[in-house]
Design brief:
The chain is α/β, with parallel strands linked by helices. Helix 5 links the parallel strand 4 and strand 5.
């Protein structure tokens, strides 16, 4: 890879994992946009991240921390910093997002839709006045709508998605304006990962999100029934697969102007996930699965109802009728296998890390 000057807008689950290969693939220089958060400055947060990632001194020297915020015009950067970005940046990777499925509409709109508009504004200036070769936009397979029952195609947005939450809606709106800019001539590559979980071979993850909180409650022994279709597919994307696909695209000029569904072509079923011994301590009974139309909350104890309410944001994804075209993704990288063996690796890592109990409490 030719050395690039890169702007990375976020250091969440995927942005953080991208930073290491971006630095080690070549002598790239990366400007990382970070905001002050609570009592920690952007620089303090960055220093903690660099320690977590075990960056070397020479790698740290090629990272510039930009104090800013995607929700602000010009990303909250002063005029001099904006001019420097416009003149110097070859590649923008936009990963900043509010990703919680329970986030409210105002936050999702400000970060995901308006934040993306702000990134596009800067990217267009970089392209017309500077040296920008590409914008990589991290979308989500869920722009198709968690409540939809359709085959989602890679190179188009569905016309009538059934969005299950504000996150899905805001990422759809963000991608809509990205695609408008792409069709107007901005060089863009769009990636749509499904639910990002642990790495392919080890199950390793730093963030136990999406399926993990639900499975921890299911493994508690306190829930006896769960509203889910055993035949529904759980669309998972190993973290290393997602990072690898993005990195591979940077050396593949043909990926400009295309969209990639980063997910497995043969996803596991809900039944396979609940049958996975690695997620359940020995001796703990597993919830019985009921199709939502047959699920009666009044049959649950008050404690069960409270626990189920705490993970109700997951329900659409355990009754999903969505499927995803992966033709572009399969051309770019080998697609992942998320079978029962992979689920076992996820569960084992969750136990070994202490996130899940090894034995019944």
């Amino acid at each position: 890879m030719t050395a690039l000057r890169i702007l990375l807008t976020g250091t969440g689950t995927i942005g953080r994992e991208l930073l290491v290969p971006l630095l080690r693939a070549s002598s790239n220089r990366v400007a990382v946009l970070m905001r002050d958060r609570r009592r920690r400055s952007a620089q303090q947060r960055a220093d903690a991240l660099f320690r977590e990632l075990d960056l070397t001194a020479s790698e740290r020297a090629r990272v510039e921390v930009l104090q800013g915020d995607v929700t602000c015009a010009g990303l909250g950067l002063d005029a001099a910093a904006q001019v420097r970005i416009i003149e110097d940046v070859d590649l923008i990777i936009h990963t900043a997002a509010a990703t919680a499925l329970t986030a409210d509409r105002a936050l999702c709109d400000a970060v995901n839709r308006a934040g993306t508009a702000n990134v596009l504004g800067l990217a267009e200036r970089c392209y017309t006045r500077g040296r920008l070769k590409r914008l990589v936009h991290l979308s989500t397979a869920l722009v198709a709508g968690g409540g939809s029952a359709t085959l989602a195609c890679e190179d188009e947005l569905p016309a009538t998605p059934a969005h299950a939450n504000h996150y899905e809606w805001s990422k759809y709106e963000a991608e809509r304006i990205v695609r408008a800019a792409m069709h107007a001539g901005l060089p863009v590559t769009v990636f749509r990962p499904s639910m990002v979980v642990g790495e392919t071979e080890t199950g390793r993850t730093r963030d136990f999100n999406v399926i993990y909180p639900l499975m921890r409650i299911m493994a508690s022994g306190y829930v006896t029934r769960f509203p889910a279709d055993p035949r529904a597919r759980i669309h998972l994307a190993p973290l290393d697969f997602v990072v690898g696909a993005i990195m591979r695209s940077l050396d593949a000029a043909w990926t400009v102007g295309l969209t990639f569904h980063l997910t497995a072509p043969d996803p596991p079923t809900v039944a396979q996930l609940f049958d996975c011994d690695a997620f359940f301590p020995s001796g703990v009974s597993r919830p019985q699965l009921y199709p939502p139309a047959e699920f009666d909350p009044s049959a649950c104890t008050p404690r069960e109802r409270d626990l189920l309410e705490s993970v109700s944001f997951c329900f659409p994804y355990f009754n999903s009728r969505l499927s995803f075209e992966t033709r572009n993704a399969g051309r770019l990288v080998p697609l992942p296998v998320t079978d029962s063996a992979y689920l076992t690796r996820l569960g084992r890592y969750a136990v070994e890390s202490g996130y899940l109990q090894r034995t019944a409490g």
